[in-house]
Design brief:
By secondary structure, this protein is of the alpha/beta class. The chain has helices at about 15-30, 45-60, 75-90, 100-115, 210-215, 225-230, 240-255, 260-280, 305-320, 345-360, and strands at about 5, 70-75, 95-100, 115-120, 145, 150, 155, 170, 190-195, 205-210, 285, 300-305, 320-325, 335. A seven-stranded mixed β-sheet has the order 2-10-9-8-5-3-4, with helices on both faces. A three-stranded antiparallel β-sheet has the order 11-12-14, with helices on one face. A two-stranded parallel ribbon has the order 1-13. Helix 1 crosses helix 7, helix 3 runs parallel beside helix 4 (about 100-115) and helix 8 (about 260-280) packs parallel to helix 10. The longest helix is centred in the last third of the chain and has 22 residues, at about 260-280. Bound molecules: pyridoxal-5'-phosphate.
């Protein structure tokens, strides 16, 4: 293996090395066609196979049937903040949101541009240090939106709103997509920017129930209508070929690793090691998530006794090849992002460093 550092960045994030290797090979010659994956037409048969297989594999991994569409769009999860209300809001029926952090707030802001928007639960009172216990589902809502993992604050939903018929459940899973088994059929629309847990930046995965596709009016801008993309199977205009190709490799890697059960076990092990260290050394490291039941498997956030120590911690970790540990500027402290492809050895190395750093601080 070439030189690899431990990449704790929140996104774009670490990918399986086997995937990076295959992608670099395909950048030279894809399928022996004498063409690079960077050059191939999005209408070519070999690329059509890639996108079809990715859709099939994703549905298989998530246990979804054919009433769901899998789309590869552009504009990031951020464009979905607007596309969702634009396509799903019904006349006279407010859109409901749970506010669990910075990304939720951005989603709420876009929804407010388009119509009545309610915040039905929030953890803003403590700077988003927990996931609200009560998650009300209103009968008159156009839909209910949650952010399953709060990348910046290190919280994650481990309990979900009650499923209510006629009230679609919409989830931003950008930073915990495919990190664990879930009843994905309880959700009506799931979206995620690829660059946290599924591939490189460029494509955004949107999974939605067929019945939701029909909601948007004819006057919705063409490229912003889900129906445009379901009708053309994500090939209405030129998609991000390379990014989709890498997502397809990551999905194969998940299947070869044993599926979401195996991925989840590995993630629980990694998060367990790190939270265990924080709890054991609580005189020095403080977890920023106050409710332990809300701790994220993907983004582990903690602080040190003062800012100066935190700066030293990040710098010294960087010197021994552990990169990206600085917390988001809006919360400070330390954030270790340990997505699916992050190796357990990297977590063990961080825990060892935490012990050593504390002993001489
Ligand atoms: C990173 C992130 C986003 C933004 O994704 P883009 O693809 O950059 O628009 C949205 N939601 C969550 C939860 C994120 O972690």
């Amino acid at each position: 293996m070439t030189h690899r550092v431990y990449n704790f960045y929140a996104g774009p994030a670490t990918l399986p090395y086997s995937v990076v290797k295959k992608a670099s090979q395909a950048a030279l010659d894809f399928n022996g066609l004498g063409l690079s994956i960077l050059e191939i037409s999005h209408r070519a048969k070999d690329f059509d196979n890639v996108i079809k297989e990715a859709q099939k594999d994703l549905k298989e991994i998530m246990g979804l049937s054919d009433d769901y569409h899998v789309l590869f769009l552009q504009g990031g999860a951020s464009l979905q903040f607007h596309m969702i209300p634009l396509n799903l809001m019904l006349d006279g029926r407010p859109a409901d949101y749970v506010n669990t952090g910075a990304w939720s707030k951005k989603a709420i802001k876009e929804s407010k541009l388009l119509g009545e928007t309610r915040v039905v639960a929030s953890s803003e009172d403590t700077n988003f240090s927990y996931i609200p216990r009560e998650l009300p589902v209103n009968d008159d809502a156009s839909y209910l939106h949650i952010t399953t993992n709060n990348t910046i604050f290190g919280t994650e939903f481990h309990h979900f709103p009650q499923k209510k018929s006629g009230i679609p459940l919409v989830a931003d899973m950008s930073s915990d997509m495919l990190c664990r088994r879930l009843n994905f059929t309880d959700f009506d629309l799931i979206y995620a920017g690829a660059q946290k847990n599924m591939g490189p930046s460029g494509t955004t995965i949107v999974i939605l129930k067929d019945e939701l596709v029909q909601r948007a009016s004819e006057s919705t801008p063409t490229l912003l209508r889900y129906k445009t993309h379901t009708d053309k199977d994500s090939l209405f205009n030129t998609p991000t070929v390379f990014s989709i190709y890498v997502v397809h490799l990551v999905l194969k890697w998940i299947i070869e690793s044993g599926g979401l059960g195996a991925i989840e076990a590995e993630n629980r092990k990694k998060a367990g090691l790190l939270y265990g260290a924080i709890d054991e050394m609580s005189d020095f490291y403080t977890g920023t998530v106050t409710d332990k039941n809300s701790r994220s498997l993907m983004n582990v956030t903690f602080s040190l006794p003062d800012r100066e120590l935190e700066q030293r911690f990040v710098q010294e970790a960087g010197e021994i090849n552990m990169l990206g540990l600085k917390g988001h500027r809006s919360v400070g402290g330390i954030r270790a992002s340990i997505y699916n492809a992050f190796p357990v050895e990297g977590v063990e190395k961080l825990v060892e460093f935490m012990k050593e750093f504390r002993s001489r601080a």
